Amino acid sequence: MYDLSKMPEKFADWPPEARVEHLAYRFMKTPFTNAIDEMLEHLYWPAGLEPEGEGCFIVGDTGVGKTTAVRMFTDRKYAEMRAKDPSGKWYRPKLFATDLSPICHMTPEGLRRPIAAVWVDPRPRFNSFMADTALGLGIDLGSRFSFGKACIEIANAIEKQEVKMIIFDDVQHIIENGMDIYGVADVFKVFAKARVQVVCVGMPDALKLGDENEQLERLVANSYTVQPLRCSVGDFPRLDDNGRLLVRTERQELTPYRKLLRALDRRNGKNSVLPFDEPSDLSDPNMALRLHQSYRGYTGKMMKLVVRAAKLAIARGNSRITMKHFEEAYRSASKCSDERNWFRMPFPQVRDVFGTVVPLAPVRDEEDEDPAPKSRSMTGKGGGKRKSAMSDGDRRMVEDAFAGRK
Questions:
Q1: d(CA 298, CA 283)
Q2: Which of 90, 256, 261, 320 is deepest in the core (most CB within 10 A)?
């Protein structure tokens, strides 16, 4: 790890490893990341002030950038909390299979966990889901446990650690594998009763949870769907056959996609997003249209392609990212032929077919892979809704715990 604040002014003087590290810690704000940040902030600040916790769903296709947007919110809260209270030890343990991390603060009085995070297993069953949720609070339930006692342990941990928000990532796995929806609702209810805000992140199918259970319907009602960024040839002034503008001064308003690329490529010394001393002209039509078409506006996938191309440029000692770097990076990621490589095509061909040809499906990164087969049903074999996983006795134990009668 390098102390990037002590690096020279010019990126050319940095070690290649430091430039790659710089890439990993830079995120760009977009209209949807701003909307998600505002949505989560409105959930976070009143946590614990109302009789029950609330929640929301943030959904979108793989690679659209939903998890990154949530991570940007947690990163901002982490910086704010550390600045407000620099005492003790602040840290963020890494979680398997997700970019999300909890926020932990070790104090003389014990561990605080303002924001907890849980990754949902690709093949969840009720017991494993409950155990993983408990582990998100540092509780090991062991191989055998009752739901009621597990709820009490979780309730105690929430109180001791002062948990205000818990984030579940990849909640679509619950739908895909036909897990007991009523059991899921009972787990979420534990947090709601403890006045903790519940955030669910996943694919659009995750919204079906609200169709199956009234307890989850309220969470699903407060949802945000992340969409790919729009782009068309008409977003640019008239272009020549090399993708260059035919007018000297552009008067039309920039779209969110073009604003993103311009901000991504802006030179601002060591505060630049891309670790290069020269601009890579990403917002030029010749580059912007190719980049958008390669992954149809899915922000997360496009940014991964930019990072791959940037790494090639850094490894070769180049001062910026070129079309050649993108050509190689896209070929490697998509396994496409040269004829279908958007960064090899003549610009007139890109312009003429832009938005009409679906590119080859990219080879997904390991973190995007989901080996679990999809289930066709969310109900039992008889087609009816399943019973709640919590017995009346367990329910009374949980109610007693929250009421202080434990």
A1: 16
A2: 261
| Distance from C-alpha of 384 to C-alpha of 209, rounded to nearest angstrom | 15
DSSP sequence for 205-235: GGGGHHHH-HHHHHHHHSEEE--PPP--GGG
DSSP 8-state secondary structure symbol assigned to residue 344: T
Q: Cβ(105)–Cβ(77) under 8 Å?
A: no
- List the 103-107 sheet strands across, edge first: 89-91, 103-107, 110-119, 165-169, 197-202, 55-59, 223-225
Counting the structural domains of the chain, the total is 2
CB burial class (10 A; 0-12, 13-18, 19+) of residue 191? buried
pLDDT of residue 25: 80
> Could you give the CA distance from residue 1 to residue 60 in angstroms, rounded to a whole number?
33
Hey, what amino acid is at 174? Answer: I
Q: Are residues 262 and 127 in the same domain?
A: no
**DSSP designation for 327:** H
Answer yes or no: do 62 and 188 share one domain: yes
- Which of 34, 398, 98, 53 has the alpha carbon at shortest distance from 199? 53
pLDDT per residue as tens digits for the range 237-270: 777 787 777 776 666 788 999 999 999 999 999 9
| Helix intervals (H) in 25-65 | 31-44
Tell me which residue has tokens 């209270």: 85
DSSP symbol at 13: G
pLDDT in tens, 84-132: 999 999 999 999 999 999 999 999 999 999 999 999 999 999 999 999 9
pTM, rounded to two decimals? 0.82
Can you tell me the distance from the alpha carbon of 75 to that of 55, in angstroms, rounded to the nearest whole number? 19
- With tokens 């009789």, the residue in question is 51
Based on the domain organization, do 215 and 105 belong to the same domain? yes
Q: What count of other Cβ atoms lies within 10 Å of the Cβ of residue 339?
A: 8
